[in-house]
Amino acid sequence: MSSKAAKVAELFTKTIATTKCFDQHLRKVKVLCCDSGRMVCQFQVGPEHLNQRGTLHGGFIAHLVDAVSTYALTANENVETRGVSVDLSVSYMNAAKEGDNVEVEAVTRKLGKKIAFLEVEVRNKDKNQLLATGRHTKYVGI
Fold first, then answer.
1. Are the C-beta atoms of residues 49 and 57 closer than 8 Å to each other?
2. How far is CA 57 from CA 47, 50, 76, 77, 97, in A?
3. Which residues lie below 8 Å from residue 10, measured CB to CB, with a gap of 6+?
4. DSSP state, 22?
């Protein structure tokens, strides 16, 4: 882990632990790995992450795609901004239930002077099953 990536992982952990804004829902998410342009996190699905059908809420998955990919972006050596979202999309493939262990991996696919393209996979670690994929485009020319 580069020193910048280590700082990004530490910032994610501290911010999530202390925030009172919407990101407080990410409190159970723990950073497993952070290196240049990539971040891997894990959490156990709790009741606060469920929809009314008892499965992992799609809106929470979209929040994961947004947040984890943003921190993966900032882990790039040449990036000094969180950027601004231009587009975010999520494709849902399978459901997770309370108690399942979920892994989120975000990768910077392309970093230009003004636009960054990130991809995210959300996986059920217990079943080795892809739950969702996400794409996040950010304006970084700030």
1. yes
2. 10, 5, 29, 33, 10
3. none
4. G
Per-residue pLDDT tens digits for 82-140: 999 999 999 999 999 999 999 999 999 999 999 999 999 999 999 999 999 999 999 99
Query: Rounded to whole angstroms, what are the CA distances from 30 to 35, 88, 114, 133?
Result: 15, 22, 30, 19
CA distance 129 to 108: 22
CA-based nearest residue to 8, from 106, 90, 86? 106
In the block, residue with structure tokens 């892809």: 130
pTM beyond 0.90, yes or no: yes
- Collapsing DSSP states into helix, strand and coil, what is residue 108? strand
Packed helices 58-74 and 3-18: angle between N→C axes, nearest 10 degrees: 140
Using DSSP's 3-state secondary structure scheme, residue 136 falls into strand
